[in-house]
Amino acid sequence: MSRKFQINIEMKGEILMDEQKMEKRMLETLQKAKYDDKDALMELIEKFKPIIRKYSRKLKYDTAESDLVIELIKIIKVIPTNRESLNNDNEFVSYIAAAIRYEYYKLRKQSLLNFYQEIPLNDFIVIDCRQIDHDLRIFINQLVDKLPNKEKFIISSIFFYGYSEAELAKKLSISRQAVNKTKNNALKKLLTFINN
Fold first, then answer.
1. 177 pLDDT more than 90
2. DSSP one-letter code for 130
3. Nearest to residue 96, comparing CAs of 155, 33, 36, 182?
4. Residue 147 and residue 182: Cα distance in Å, rounded?
5. Rg from Cα positions in the chain
6. Which pLDDT does position 179 carry in this prediction?
């Protein structure tokens, strides 16, 4: 065996040993953090800071980063360290990243609900669907789809396509007051959907 080949094998062996030490160190850090070691907990928070920042920027509210850090701490406290599926660094990181992503979706939904609860019925305006983000568009469509067909048509026409109540009344051959009443009933139903 040539000297160069032997050195290469030794280097690969050292790299593998270093990776195993890192994995063991990460799991040890997790174990310490679970049992209230503040330094270990801070080390894990710093490790996941990039993903926390990514999702907190997407949430667009002031305390989003703190909320995600608190959720990370809760995850660390309950993560099952004795499972074989979490016996290496990659699986552990994937597990926590997925849990943070799930919490992001929960917080996103909650912030949308809070946003819509704060808007009075008369402050609804025409929504340009091209200018709102994808998550919000899906949420709005899911809410509107729960309405009966007539209400869905009137809400979509007024808020998504910019029709006036008078134009809709003429198109549907009903009074403007009937369109207004149907619109207000639909908005009330949407608010109850949001609150539930």
1. yes
2. G
3. 33
4. 11
5. 27
6. 92
Task: Name residue 44's amino acid.
Answer: L
Whole-number Å distance between alpha carbons of 127 and 111: 18
Contacts of 162 by beta carbon, 8 Å cutoff, 6+ apart: 126
Side chain identity, residue 144? V
Q: What is the dihedral of CA 118, 123, 128, 130, to 10 degrees?
A: -10
**Most confident region among 45-49, 77-81, 120-124 by mean pLDDT:** 45-49
Is there a contact between 89 and 23 (Cβ–Cβ < 8 Å)? yes
User: What is the per-residue DSSP string for 26-92?
Assistant: HHHHHHHHHTT-HHHHHHHHHHTHHHHHHHHHHHTSTTHHHHHHHHHHHHHHH--TT-GGG-SHHHH
Whether the CB-CB separation of 81 and 110 falls below 8 Å is answered with no
Q: Which of 29, 24, 51 is closest to 42 using CA atoms? A: 29
For the record, the structure tokens of 5 come out as: 């080949």
Q: How far apart are CA 115 and CA 94, in angstroms?
A: 31
The Cα–Cα gap between 50 and 107 comes to 18
pTM greater than 0.70 (yes/no): no
3-state helix, strand, coil in the chain (%, to 5): 80, 0, 20
Distance CA 174, CA 183 (A): 13
- Token pair listed for 55: 């999702």
